[in-house]
Design a protein that fits this description.
single chain, 496 residues, alpha/beta, five-stranded antiparallel sheet, five-stranded mixed sheet, globular
């Protein structure tokens, strides 16, 4: 037996000798090749950064890791805390999946606080919201039809909207005054409504098209129709050679929306989303229209209030599961869904639907992804705050760690895909990174604020190498130029 072992060992030694290599030599060559590749990649990206005039005077935090091992392959200002903009939604989405679960649904409920006799509800009717940002006018119509099917034709009391599931703070702490009149700054409410399946809750969609003849007023359709905005149409139809100068402005803390300028007669359709001042009143307004459509009348008024404990549940509507809601959140960078998730996590884990409690949950749960909340500043869930701060290394580490979660495929599939034109696939990357090397090979979250542009996610190079990356560009004079720089970095990475 000893002779046999010696013979095997001798054969191995001869084989290694004849090949001119040793196990250590193999390791050394592989290590040398990897180091050379790493050095070449670093040289290429550093060269790009040093020659970009738009980066002069700006800050660029960059961290690139091997996707399988998590090893850092390139870093530049990678530990500097920078503003992530909508890259913050990566953290919000992951924590929501961890806390709430992929199958979590938001329920809208209808209650009555009296008996139903001979078609009369002997009391008030309540519509109670629980944070469903995907609620549509058609859903309210279905609930109104349910009431009719249950024999309710007349309400002896009031129609009341209950948004008490969350607190009454409509905006995250750093939302700018100017953003409150933009669709991405719509107020947050537990009882809210979206105009279409992009789910910009708390907004009304205006579809604007030219009139039949030059000089005619443009034609405007509100979806849904509501008294919570008041349109002042001063816009005219221009000839086909005229440029588009259409402007849609909402006065701050006002229902008045003024449309001015010109729209060429050849224009097919232009869409504008307008935030309402009070999502609860907006939802109530559309709900009462649905009741009237079903012939249901009431004796009292339509107002806000709280559902009493004695009230009985009549019917409910369930939202899509969180796994599906993450698609518009991440693909389209939907702020209202992100901020609503923060409040929802506050309710579920802390018993209070507030930004403060929700952000406490965020910080506590991020520890599971090897992040230290003390090294970052989290002010909201959407990233609209200019003083959210996180480093590129922390973001890339988070993206590495999250791969081990059972819901990772749901998380990654919600990310925008480079160069894919379908809106709910490519999202905010549908018109970017569409070269032969990058089209369809980058899954990443974009981010934009004034002077800020960011991009973090996953990619596969032309050689099949898989990377994790985080690029945080701050203090840019023109944030749109930052996207060109990000794309150049990714195109460079795609060659290795």
């Amino acid at each position: 037996m000893a002779l046999l072992k010696k013979g095997i060992l001798l054969v191995m030694i001869i084989s290694i000798f004849l090949s001119g290599s040793t196990p250590n030599a193999f390791s050394s060559k592989a290590l040398a090749a990897e180091n050379h590749k790493k050095a070449t990649l670093s040289t290429a990206i550093e060269s790009l950064l040093s020659t970009e005039p738009e980066l002069k005077g700006s800050l660029a935090g960059i961290s690139i890791r091997d996707r399988e091992s998590g090893t850092i392959l390139f870093e530049h200002m990678s530990d500097l805390r920078l503003t992530p903009a909508s890259n913050m939604k990566l953290l919000t989405s992951a924590v929501a999946l961890k806390v709430l679960g992929e199958d979590y649904q938001f329920i809208t409920e209808i209650y009555g606080d009296g008996r139903v006799e001979d078609g009369h509800l002997k009391g008030n009717l309540y519509i109670k919201g629980n944070g469903d940002t995907s609620l549509l006018a058609t859903d309210l119509e279905k609930m109104a039809k349910e009431l009719k099917n249950k024999g309710i034709r007349y309400i002896d009391g009031n129609v009341i909207g209950d948004d008490s599931w969350y607190d009454d703070t409509p905006y995250s702490i750093d939302l700018a005054w100017s953003d409150e009149t933009s669709y991405y700054g719509a107020p947050i409410s537990a009882l809210t409504l979206s105009p279409n399946k992009e789910y910009d809750a708390g907004t009304v969609l205006l579809e604007i098209k030219p009139g039949k003849n030059r000089g005619d007023s443009v034609e405007i359709t509100s979806m849904p129709k509501t008294t919570e905005i008041q349109l002042v149409n001063k816009a005219k139809t221009g000839d086909k050679e005229s440029g588009t100068s259409l402007k849609v402005r909402k006065k701050h803390n006002s229902k008045v929306v003024t449309i001015t300028g010109r729209l060429p007669i050849t224009t097919t359709l232009k869409k504008e989303w307008i935030p309402v001042n009070d999502p609860t009143k907006y939802t109530l307004d559309v709900f009462q229209q649905a009741l009237k459509k079903e012939g249901i009348q009431w004796n009292g008024t339509v107002k806000k209030g709280k559902t009493p404990q004695i009230a009985s549940l009549i019917t409910t509507h369930s939202s899509m599961p969180l796994s599906e809601l993450l698609i518009p959140l991440m693909k389209l960078s939907n702020n209202t869904i992100a901020e609503t998730l923060v409040k929802e996590m506050g309710v579920v884990k802390k018993g209070k639907g507030s930004f403060e409690k929700g952000l406490e949950v965020m910080e506590e749960e991020l520890i599971a992804f090897q992040l230290d909340p003390k090294n970052m500043l989290i002010r909201d869930g959407s990233g609209i705050s200019p003083i959210d701060f996180i480093s590129a290394n922390d973001l890339s580490l988070f993206l590495y760690e999250v791969q081990a979660e059972p819901w990772f495929s749901t998380f990654s599939q919600a990310l925008p895909v480079s160069g894919m034109e379908e809106r709910m696939v490519g999202g905010t990357l549908r018109n970017r990174l569409n070269s032969e090397n990058t089209k369809g090979n980058v899954l990443a979250k974009t981010g934009t604020l004034t002077a800020v542009s960011t991009l973090s996610g996953y990619m596969e190079s032309s050689s099949g190498k898989k990377y994790i990356f985080s690029i945080l560009l701050n203090h840019l004079v023109d944030e749109e130029k930052g996207k060109d720089i990000e794309d150049k970095i990714i195109e460079t990475l795609a060659e290795y």
